[in-house]
Amino acid sequence: MRWAPDARGRLERAAIELFAEQGYAATTVPQITARAGLTTRTFFRHFADKREVVFGGDEIPENAARLILAAPSGLAPMAVLRTVLHRVSAEFFASDRAETGAWRAMILANDELRDRDARKRADMVRASRAAFLERGQPPLEATVLAELGVLAFQVALDEWAAGSDDRSMDAVVDEVLATIARQAQDRAER
Amino acid sequence: MRWAPDARGRLERAAIELFAEQGYAATTVPQITARAGLTTRTFFRHFADKREVVFGGDEIPENAARLILAAPSGLAPMAVLRTVLHRVSAEFFASDRAETGAWRAMILANDELRDRDARKRADMVRASRAAFLERGQPPLEATVLAELGVLAFQVALDEWAAGSDDRSMDAVVDEVLATIARQAQDRAER
């Protein structure tokens, strides 16, 4: 989420700053556009409403599906997920952990944003499932893999954003995937 | 969801019938209470609004947490999940698959209900995570187990409700848990 010279990036940056300074509920679209030095008309060309600035547009599920389809065909499913999650973390979360942490904390503190976040997660599962079906996985396997991938992404993101050590998002992704593999082992006794 | 002589059960039953007959959006609270032979005042003693009839009250996350805590202490985590999910399916879904299928289809077809369903899922993860922490799991393990449990429940419920064979919900739960265990294995090639 680095500062970008384009209108969209400026609006996102201004919104995140204002949400951090005065809270999500107290921030209005005109305040965001004033801070960004742009018009409200420009705002609504990029985002349906204030809430959508927080969620970065509708292209994320499609991007996830595209990355799943682009992974080498010989990879085992969990290796596909690892490859995709490393790509995603490089694209989106390489920059600023404190900013990502503030953004996640804001979402988790607000019921309306939590609902939207939960729906976004469901949309990501849906898009990822379609991609795994296209890779030839049977329906139940495709559903489980899509759910595991989105689960790993969300858990890793929250772990990384809340953490105080200097691990990379990739290291956290690997730890979460290893924890899933270990915990999901099906045996009777611990 | 068998017919129950109590007010709450009668209201749920009337609501589900009306939602099936004329759709969720077109159904009003007075229609529900007229069908149930009860007053709107009684309705609002049991449910905050029309939407909450669909989701069966707020006690489900607490029930899940209680069942996790009640599982024998020597069980491996996935065996805890299996035990809990068998108990849940016996309590809630032993009766009528067609009715459950209609109910799930209604939720998935309506954005407002999908949002609420997604939030309920997040609440179940939260409550289950607290229970796994109380069972002595470290934080990341507790998060992953709670997510896997809720994932398995949701996937099994949708699989079972949409299926046309006569498998029990327990058999579907076992298949979903086995699929998770198999898919989550961490290896490089398939």
Task: Walk me through this protein's architecture.
The structure is a homodimer of 190-residue chains. The first copy, chain A, is an all-alpha fold. Chain A folds into 2 domains: 7-53, Homeodomain-like (Arc Repressor Mutant, subunit A, Orthogonal Bundle); 58-189, Tetracycline Repressor, domain 2 (Orthogonal Bundle), CATH 1.10.357. Chain A has helices spanning 7-22, 29-36, 40-46, 50-55, 59-70, 77-92, 97-108, 111-134, 139-162, 169-183. In chain A, α6 packs antiparallel against α10 (169-183). The longest helix of chain A has 24 residues, at 111-134. Chain A is globular, with a radius of gyration of 18 Å. Chain A starts with 6 loop residues before the first helix and ends in a 7-residue tail after the last helix. The model of chain A has no long low-confidence stretch (mean pLDDT 86). Chain A binds chain B through residues 74-79, 111, 114-116, 118-119, 121-122, 140-141, 143-145, 147-148, 151, 155, 159, 175-181, 183-190, and chain B through 74-79, 111, 114-116, 118-119, 121-122, 140-141, 143-145, 147-148, 151, 155, 159, 175-181, 183-190.
In short:
2 copies of one chain form a homodimer. The first copy, chain A, is mainly α and 190 residues long. Helix content of chain A is 74%, strand content 0%.
